[in-house]
């Protein structure tokens, strides 16, 4: 099969009907600072769809992943709340409002955390390998893997082409946050790649003097989890590099590596404080890559850690163009930060690297919860045959985009405050919307309420 048959598909998560600002994510500065504000689910979903369509119109392959069933009344019942659904929601609102907020979270919109994916070109058995992230480090995200796994299996259904692995054991030792801490570097997408796994801590070596630890916020990804996923996918030592995230970056709000670095093809765009051992990480990548690595380093003098986190400069999409150039899709906050915008113009666009264009997208609803362009997408490299084998109707075109916009406008509220989460009407509205969406996308019965 020709390497030209392989294309990257960005599967963006649709923002769910219960999108709200609950401030649930410890270590995510934007999420914590906006907790309790009134959200606009309709605007959030339309912003995401507008980004998807813009990239589709520009010639990039764009996929769609559905949101999860929220509120998760089943999770509340498992925690001892009983009675009718209305009674369960009312009791949770009165006795444990933070738990209610958690089971209403629309965080599955950030599909960079949905799974880790290895393309078939890198796998010994010639199949695409998928492992859902266990997301055990936070309760509201721990609720996602079961449905995420069903959705991914419904779409990547052909067992001859796609291999699905179970999520890792949901324990602190194997804390896995998915592709947000994974970057594949290569020449072209259809050429063999090297997989960079970034972790925050070692579960079985933590506390050693040789392992600096963050002091303010928790390190979510473990080395052991990254190693286990690489083993599941059958990657050899020469195909993988494990690098520790800089603890100072974690303490500054870099809860995932994709808040401080982004890679595409042979390009690794990263902040000076991204990796604890920057020289060692680059050397290991160079040793393994068949194509010369193109590191694009942003020094702290140009962009501080605070500005990197506040603007989400590195939580951008770096996309390949047919002429060999690359486009960087950044959130509007980058344009509003003078130092970051100057860096984009003078350091990146004027530098000796393939980045030839910066595109700005407004994603304020997502950004206030701590998710930028890169959080919203799961990157999957697929051959032409693999793309043809996808089940459902998940590759975006103009008709599907129009149907999804109309679906959002029919079902989504334009205002949602924390106190609205106990409204039983909201729960009913969400179920009606998701049932209709599963029919639009033709993915079958992936939600708990559809499975009896």
| Rounded average pLDDT | 93
Number of strands: 15
Give the CA-based shape: globular
Low-pLDDT runs: 25-32
Percent of residues in helices: 25-40%
- Count of runs of 4 or more consecutive helical residues: 17
Give the distance, in angstroms, between the N- and C-terminal Cα atoms. 43 Å
CATH class label: Alpha Beta
Order of strands, main sheet, comes to 2-1-15
What's the main sheet like?
Answer: 3 strands, mixed
Quickly count the domains: 1
Strand content: 15-25%
Architecture in CATH? Answer: 5-stranded Propeller
Helical/strand content category = alpha/beta
Which fold does the CATH topology refer to? L-arginine/glycine Amidinotransferase, Chain A
Spell out the CATH superfamily. Answer: Succinylarginine dihydrolase
Over all CA atoms, what is the radius of gyration?
21 Å
